[in-house]
Structure formats: structure tokens, C-alpha cells
Design goal:
single chain, 291 residues, alpha/beta, 9-stranded mixed β-sheet, two-stranded antiparallel ribbon, 11 helices, elongated, LysR substrate-binding domain-containing protein, DNA-binding transcription factor activity
Length: 291
């Protein structure tokens, strides 16, 4: 298996020398591993160019099988740990900013009270990057909207649906209303939360044949709220993201409402690391109590 690990590490880092350092081997040892694998398969897997190390066409074709082999091997090791008890493990999660700020802190704290030797690694992304990380094996699972095109072919578990709120400066003329229509918002300078291949607000606008005047695109809810507080424009953000916000802004329901569905996404629940399976079960039992 070390030969497979070495090949993937070289591709990840882009250097034989740095891959060897990361794995605790000499460069010659790592080179011999790759040569041994190529000799066994009777195929050239890597070539070096001015732009670095790349897979040959044959290597490209075999890469998914190599990744799958490594994933199954890791799953076997995790199963072995499961049989011995959950005394360790790393849970790698792809998360949206609203989920990592509102749901995960308390859940991780409570889970680590039960399993103190389990550690977490969070990768904050969007509807495009999180499914890509799942496919590449860089994370175990993630949180996404299952309606995103990028999720096709992956396993999803529905968690909940949530609404959005329009956010405006308190002095904005629309801020005095009990609600605000999408037609009204489409005429304003709009600040868009960039979430990859799918935007629930943009989809809602386009369903009505509207195209908002998007002036700024940002990946961070807090940055958008700061811009709204400065009266740069208006926006529509997930209600979950607006919890515990201390900005001087007004939050209003939209007409029609803008809805976001949230699901867990993974490649195959049967080969997830045991620690991740434990956490998903723990999370789903607490899902009804989430804010």
C-alpha cells in the first residue's frame, strides 16, 4: 500500500522530494516505490515536465482505482479500530460557513466529550468545492444543498430546510416594511453570497424572470453584513448565517420566500471512516434540536 500512498502524495504535493519528507522516507525510496509500481503494472504512471509532475494518460485512467484502493484500505483500518473501540480517528468535514459557525461548535464539543481522542479537520467551501473534495477523498463528508448540479452521483442524506432573509441598512427605504419583495430587491445594488455552482437567491430571482444588479460577490456572510451595515447595498442570506450577528442591519422575510435545503454528502456511507460514521449518527440524532 505504501507505493499507492507515495504516488498520491507526489500528486498532492507535486514533488518527489517534498512527498518523501512528508512520508518520512528518502527521495530515492519514494522513487523506487513508484518505479516498483510501474514495473508491476508494466505502465508508465508519471512524467516530469517544466510545469511539474503529471500523470501519463495511463496514470490518469488508473488514478480512480488507486484512490479507491487506498480508501478501502483506510476503511479496513478504521473497521479494525472500531472492533477495538473508538479510541481515536480524524473526522474531515467540508462545511458551509453558516454550518461551521452555528451548528458544529456545540456538536463537536459534545462529541469530543464522549470521544476525547477523536479529532476534527474542517474545510470551509461551497456547493462546488465540497462535492469535489468528497470525490477526491480529501474529506469524508460535507454539507451542501442537494439540488446543486455538482452533487450528482454522490450519496446524500437530507438534514433540514431553512429560509433566507433580506438584509438592509436600517436607513434604507425598504427597511420599514414588514417584508420585502424580490421585485423590490432586484432594483437595488445587490451583494451576492458566492456559494459555487448554485445560488438560492439567484434561482429565486430568475424563477420570476428577474435579474438583480449584482455589484459585489463575496464568500463570507460576515463581510456581506459589514457591507450592508456600511449601506453599500442589500443582500439575501441564509437565516442560519444571521444568527448571533451583531451588525446594525435589518432582517426582513422575502416574498416569495427563498429556501435552502441542506444535506450531508459522501461517496459511500459503507466505506466511511468509523469516526465519521459515529459523528454522522450523533449529528442526525441531534438534527431536530439544531437552531
Amino acid at each position: 500500500m505504501e507505493r499507492y500512498f507515495a504516488l498520491l502524495k507526489i500528486l498532492e504535493i507535486g514533488s518527489f522530494t517534498k512527498a518523501a519528507e512528508a512520508m518520512g522516507y528518502s527521495q530515492s525510496a519514494v522513487s523506487q516505490m513508484v518505479q516498483s509500481l510501474e514495473s508491476e503494472l508494466s505502465l508508465k504512471l508519471l512524467y516530469r515536465s517544466r510545469n511539474g509532475i503529471k500523470l501519463t494518460p495511463e496514470g490518469e485512467a488508473l488514478l480512480p482505482y488507486i484512490q479507491r484502493t487506498v480508501n478501502h484500505y483506510n476503511a479496513m483500518l478504521e473497521k479494525t479500530r472500531e472492533l477495538k473501540g473508538l479510541n481515536g480517528g480524524l473526522i474531515r468535514i467540508g462545511t458551509l460557513s453558516s454550518v461551521s459557525s452555528q451548528w458544529l461548535p456545540g456538536l463537536i464539543k459534545d462529541f469530543q466529550t464522549l470521544y476525547p481522542k477523536v479529532h476534527f479537520l474542517l474545510h470551509q467551501g461551497d456547493y462546488t468545492t465540497i462535492p469535489a473534495w468528497v470525490r477526491a477523498g480529501e474529506i469524508d463528508f460535507g454539507f451542501v444543498n442537494p439540488d446543486a448540479e455538482s452533487v450528482r452521483g454522490l450519496h446524500t442524506i437530507f438534514v433540514t430546510s431553512g429560509g433566507h432573509k433580506a438584509v438592509l441598512h436600517p436607513d434604507h427605504p425598504l427597511a420599514a416594511q414588514p417584508w420585502v419583495t424580490l421585485e423590490q430587491l432586484a432594483k437595488e445594488t445587490f451583494l451576492l453570497l458566492e456559494e459555487g455552482c448554485l445560488s438560492e437567491p439567484l434561482e429565486a430571482f430568475r424563477t420570476l424572470g428577474l435579474e438583480p444588479r449584482v455589484e459585489l460577490r463575496m464568500h463570507d456572510n460576515f463581510s456581506i453584513c459589514s457591507m450592508v451595515e456600511a449601506n453599500v447595498g442589500v443582500s439575501i442570506l441564509p437565516e442560519l448565517a444571521l444568527r448571533k450577528m451583531n451588525f446594525r442591519i435589518v432582517q426582513l422575510p422575502t416574498v416569495p420566500p427563498v429556501i435552502r435545503r441542506v444535506s450531508l454528502v459522501m461517496k459511500d456511507p459503507d466505506i466511511l471512516p468509523i469516526a465519521s460514521r459515529y459523528f454522522i449518527e450523533f449529528f442526525l440524532k441531534r438534527a431536530d434540536t439544531l437552531p
